[in-house]
Amino acid sequence: ERVRATYVEEITDEQLIESAITGMLTSLDPHSSYLNAKSFKDMQVQTRGKFGGLGIEVTMENGLVRVVSPIDDTPAFRSGVKAGDLISHLDGKAVQGLTLSQAVELMRGKVGTDIKLTIQRVGTEPFEVNITRAVIPIRTVRSRTEGDIGYVRISSFSAPTGTGLKRAMKKINLELGDKMKGLVLDLRNNPGGLLDQAIAVSDAFMDQGEIVSTRTRDKQDHQRFNARKGDLSNGKPIVVLVNGGSASASEIVAGALQDHKRAIVLGTKSFGKGSVQTIIPLGNNGAMRLTTALYYTPSGRSIQKVGIQPDIVVDQARIESVDSRGLRRREADLRGALNNGNGRDEKSKDPSNNPASTVKSQSSDQAEQNRRQDFQLQRALDLLRGVSFFNKNGDR
What we know:
Number of helices: 11
Largest sheet: 6 strands, antiparallel
Distance between the termini: 83 Å
């Protein structure tokens, strides 16, 4: 009553009540919040298929907006926004003092309009990025083949993810058939999403066993989710790629496959969000996002604030080839070297001794190098080919 009567500007009861609810929920943990009617509608659209905005998943950290990860092929992704960036200003106005919902509301807007983000990134001075808002389609699953290895990237877990994964695996299996040596499941910079889709993705590569359990304050409400028979990869070796932008549902999948020894997890430690949020509608007044449980991997691990530790730690790095042709000497270059007894001059067969071949090789190598700049992915492919090689020799 005192605020309503004497605050410097007139304020409505609705504003006061919403602010009180927001304060109560955001004080609990970083993921509990109040969604007004518009925010609730936006959230429903986002999990169903598409939304308008920049294309970044965010959280709050010390009063600033922290980028958990940019969504593939969105304005933010194309503008160079990276996981771990801190957003300090929106259109020149500080985000300090805003709630996460308020900051997200400012970043969303009419398609085609611009917004200026001031970004703080480790190792650089703060800089500004202008981004044009667009309709953000949620195409969460992309796939291709890397030689004889399948590659599937899941950028987030929304309603179409499980179906998209089945389509991707069907396409890979048709293309590679029995030649398939393994699968790379790329969950890097995947901020998570729907729990049921994380379960569906894990189940797609497991024949049996627990996938994840959720534990609430009341033991009677604990839940366990188990895999059903059927492995879309037909038992082939799997490498799961994770990094600091892999959160929540991504960590459920990585943890389940890691605990069951179904996959090797490679990359860097994941984000560490091990809590479950329940959306509780409040009639026409929006909804409440409330943290109601923690999830645990099959071995009983809680990754809350800890994350998934990869089996093989590989930092992202730049791949550069070293040209040693000018310095290289071999046996065949030595004066008086003995012939090999096969009646062939191996030196003449070395492509590096043929100038035309060398030019062609350099050209093709450069194209290949440009295509393969992902160091972590290359290590995953090497690992799968090594596993396939030893498995094949072990069968003899």
